[in-house]
């Protein structure tokens, strides 16, 4: 059967999908895809897979794609990150029998993508991208698709999209943000860029960005003319987004946990999903946040969800007539709803800053909060905080250390030279000296060596003397025997 292309591929293979769940690292696993499909999603992507690891590691392939077959999980697109045409195509050849298309990730803006040289950090290397897509289009039995971020300039974004189409891309997903727009600096995605790309290419286009509810989906399709709309954050906070419903958080959690029983995944994935689903509720019940972070089994997570359900039901029973949601939320906290990420100015105001550029603090600065607010700490620091609630990450509270006279590193408290161990070792070796504080005994060992050598010489002298006496005695015996 010939490989379908463009509109025919979208219409027949992807079944004219309008509602799409984005590829999300450690978050768009099989269990979550099945939950999303039950609630209106028509097309799903796998998490981003690393092509080189997929190619060399059979366990990685089994865990991420080769597991138990699930007919419900179609149509499905497998996404890879890669920067080498041969590696990308060889990995795709191993995956093509398990999916309906292969997607090349050209949109990841994270630091890991920069270090690995893939994702959005390939968007200036058009020759390399052409070679990757041309080779994939030639070798694969399924279509090749791409997910991109935009350039600040609309014309350059359009030329970029046209280049990918010409190379053989059969469907293009456009995230309407630049690679610099991420985290608190994400801002609003540009549907204007997406609309320009849609008008300039002859292949299907999906839009990504600003999708928090079904009305956003409808508005995006109307304004941009795209074939479908992809959601990531909106889907994580409300997997029934494409149904236009806002279910109770514990009901969605119960359904998801039942699917996980049948199609297991790492507990870290499950925990991360529930942190998203319960985001607003956990602001109210902080103790449950701690319990969810500590729990070690799926059964334990189910128990936490049961406790959350009971607390919310009790709150609903005690609710006063006419009471409205708090904190400016559109719905009460126990209902699935979007989480609007605060922009840099809002975040500055939350942290008591002026909102000027100097007041905008980066991720690392936010993590150094004196109070150690868990909303602002990295995951590793949050774990340390759970183990030791009194731990502070305020640099001003860190103990002060006396510095090494030589290099400035902290010196040993009992060092005889007032140095760090490295500098002390060099000096003690050079001067044949001891430093008990660092456990360095060059002088003592040298003296022991001299003493041992001296004793060895004494033993040798004694042996020589004894050997000489024996030889004299032997000569005397021989002379006596000769005389007789």
UniProtKB/TrEMBL annotation:
UniProt biased composition (Basic and acidic residues): 346-366
Which reaction does this chain catalyze?
5,6-dihydrouridine(17) in tRNA + NADP(+) = uridine(17) in tRNA + NADPH + H(+); 5,6-dihydrouridine(16) in tRNA + NAD(+) = uridine(16) in tRNA + NADH + H(+); 5,6-dihydrouridine(16) in tRNA + NADP(+) = uridine(16) in tRNA + NADPH + H(+); 5,6-dihydrouridine(17) in tRNA + NAD(+) = uridine(17) in tRNA + NADH + H(+)
A Pfam family annotated for this UniProt entry = Dus
Subcellular location, principal: cytoplasm
Q: Name the cofactor(s) required for activity, per the record.
A: FMN
Q: Please name the Gene3D superfamilies in this protein's record.
A: Aldolase class I (3.20.20.70)
As recorded in UniProt, its EC number(s) are 1.3.1.88
- DUS-like FMN-binding domain span: 21-311
Q: What GO annotations for molecular function exist for this entry?
A: flavin adenine dinucleotide binding; tRNA dihydrouridine synthase activity
Return the annotated region ranges for Disordered.
346-394
One GO cellular component term of this record is: cytoplasm
Tell me where in or outside the cell this protein is found: Cytoplasm; Nucleus
Which key words are in the record?
Cytoplasm, Flavoprotein, FMN, NAD, NADP, Nucleus, Oxidoreductase, tRNA processing
Q: Which PROSITE patterns does the record match to this protein?
A: UPF0034
Query: InterPro entries from the entry?
Result: Aldolase_TIM, DUS-like_FMN-bd, tRNA_hU_synthase_CS
Role of this protein: Catalyzes the synthesis of dihydrouridine, a modified base found in the D-loop of most tRNAs. Specifically modifies U16 and U17 in cytoplasmic tRNAs. Affects the level of some mature tRNA and thereby the total cellular translation.
Membership in a protein family: Belongs to the Dus family. Dus1 subfamily.
* Protein name, as recorded: tRNA-dihydrouridine(16/17) synthase [NAD(P)(+)]-like
Task: From the UniProt record, report the name of the gene that encodes this protein.
Answer: Dus1l
